[in-house]
């Protein structure tokens, strides 16, 4: 992770040109400052968290015509609002909305409102396992729909960025492969208007983990198999790659859910047995035994200790 801070428009223009591509700025908020936390996974993909004061960006026809790369910008608006324009299409962006635009074509970004923040994944089109017509379809829309595939991709990119790189036990090449797979899955799903599954085992694992998070606490291994059109045996093979089983993973997520609720003020008056049931445990004794094995204390001791506890969650 490389952190770039800029205290002026000229400094920021230099940062953007080095990390992304050359651009021009039409206007800046008085006293403009900016920061980019830039994580480069490999030559084909990078993830950046960009925070700036208000400004506008112009990727002119002259600059685009001189482009030596075919990169896409997959952008998640984190804070403030703005607009993205490329070709004849213009879309508004607000916190939680995502857009996609090509760096080898002219574009214009109106980020003039203060407090701008985006998560930007820059990825080479040539590195993506996505049909060219799907990429063109996405570029024609500019906005990316709020689908499961979009959520999975940006959540994975954000996790990599927060960790400063691949998680422990994962090689950079593997993390890059998963990021590109999830990006291609999102683009294909957007263009085709249908559900699309990742093509790599790492991408599939990430999609399964997202499905579990959304459907806790009652999701079971059979639910995962049915949702992703897999056999139970294949589901177990997917989790073998990260050194666990789907059953252990589900138990860990349910225990994490229970642990969080035990120290949540909104659940302060809820009996521990009810919290156990709400986290998917049918038997309080089984829950207590599993909780002690996972966290080293009983649920009651955890609750008394308060919210400063650190969760120990199966990965």
Average predicted local confidence, pLDDT: 92
Helix content: 40-55%
* Separation of the first and last Cα atoms: 23 Å
Rg on CA atoms, Å: 22 Å
Full CATH superfamily name of the domain at 2-147: Jelly Rolls
Main sheet summary = 7 strands, antiparallel
CATH architecture of the domain at 2-147: Sandwich
**Structure classification:** alpha+beta
The tally of helices reads 12
Strands of the biggest beta sheet: in what spatial order?
1-3-4-11-6-9-12
- CATH class call of the domain at 2-147: Mainly Beta
Say what the CATH topology of the domain at 2-147 is.
Jelly Rolls
The ordered string of helix (H) and strand (E) elements is EHEEEEHEEEEEEHEHHHHHHHHH
Shape, principal axes of CA atoms: globular
Q: Please provide the count of β strands.
A: 12
Roughly what fraction of the amino acids lie in strands? Answer: 15-25%
* Low-confidence blocks of residues: none
